[in-house]
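Before surveying the methods themselves, we first show a specimen of the format, giving the amino acid sequence and backbone structure tokens:

:::
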Amino acid sequence: QVQLVESGGGLVQPGGSLRLSCAVSGSIFSRSMMSWYRQAPGKQRELVAKITPGSSANYEDSVKDRFTISRDNAKNTMYLQMNSLKPEDTAIYYCNARIWASDVVYWGRGTQVTVSS
């Protein structure tokens, strides 16, 4: 059974940092495109960053140069290092796995990130 479990969210002041983790159980991690999405109150869920099985990464424009996505295939875990956080980064952050070259997708339950003074 595949499960995605996010952790690392919390309350941080503007300019601060957080590191999110997504632990994946089941034998899909190494062959999946992994992504972080977020959903702010009253807004649609949006893609934040994605990383291929070979660790090629792409970012949404507003987080470039502030966020870094990475993965450890040996630990079945994906990370999102978030620096220089802004109030507009406040959202629930979700982990997503899509098995490469397929339409099979899995979601985590999300972790809350709140940026506020």
